[in-house]
Amino acid sequence: MLKLFKSLVLVLASLLVTAPAVAAPPAWSQYDAAQFARAQAAGKVIVVDVHATWCPTCRAQEPTLDALRSEPRLRGAIFVKVDFDTQKEFLRQYRIPRQSTVLVFKGTRETARSIAETRPAQLRAAVLSGL
């Protein structure tokens, strides 16, 4: 019986060692102008969430945007939060009229924009349309 138990433990241990690691979805990073410019220059796909902590629409968008980080088509994308209250230069540069705006860039080119969309399917479709 002890021999069977040891064999079982060895088999389970080998499965854990050889099991492929599941990659965690990319984290949101806070907007930094220099990092953003480098990502654009590298031609990266960048998903931008212009948000405000006090905004109920932003809170409603959050679960959908968080789920998109695991979307296979967005593997390798960079996810950036832009604070509506403090990042005024970004807002001017990209003509963003309000919080709860979501942008998608491919390098320096804006490929999608969604403003105040909270319906999950529509918000997801808007982001994915920019790929």
Write the layout of secondary structure elements.
Layout: H1 2-18, E1 28-30, H2 33-41, E2 45-51, H3 56-68, E3 78-83, H4 88-93, E4 101-106, E5 109-115, H5 120-128
Parallel strand pairs: 1-3, 2-3
Antiparallel strand pairs: 2-4, 4-5
Helix pairs in contact: 3-5
Describe the model.
The protein is an alpha/beta fold and 131 residues long. It has one domain (25-128): Glutaredoxin (3-Layer(aba) Sandwich), CATH 3.40.30.10. It contains 5 helices and 5 strands. The protein has a 5-stranded mixed β-sheet with strand order 1-3-2-4-5, with helices on both faces. The termini are far apart. Residues 7-13 and 15-20 have low confidence and may be disordered.
Sum this structure up briefly.
With 131 residues, the chain is an alpha/beta fold.
